[in-house]
Task: structure prediction
Amino acid sequence: MRAVACLLLLLAAPAVHAQIYKCTEGGKTRFSDKPIADCKNQSVQGEVKAPVEEPPRAPAGKKGQEPKAKAQVSKERVEFDRKCATLRQEHARLQRGPDDAAREQRMESMRSEYAACR
Result:
């Protein structure tokens, strides 16, 4: 078990990258994860990553259409969630009820509707 844990740590080690700033002045060496402001002889060790830029957004065709579409989607989602909640309640009620033909028929009819909610 200990060998497996060590192996996993060794495999994960290359995935961890960090920038280390090294400053050597007057025979003393300092290390930091941030640039050292008062250092004249500084070197960077590790990967230098450029800041991630967000891609430019495409302008909307007409003003006001996008929020309406989002509102429409959210209304549809709310209605769908409400329907699913009702189906879940009815399904739970039917599962607790007595075994009879009407119960089995209703559970069979709601099976496809209920499957879409999962």
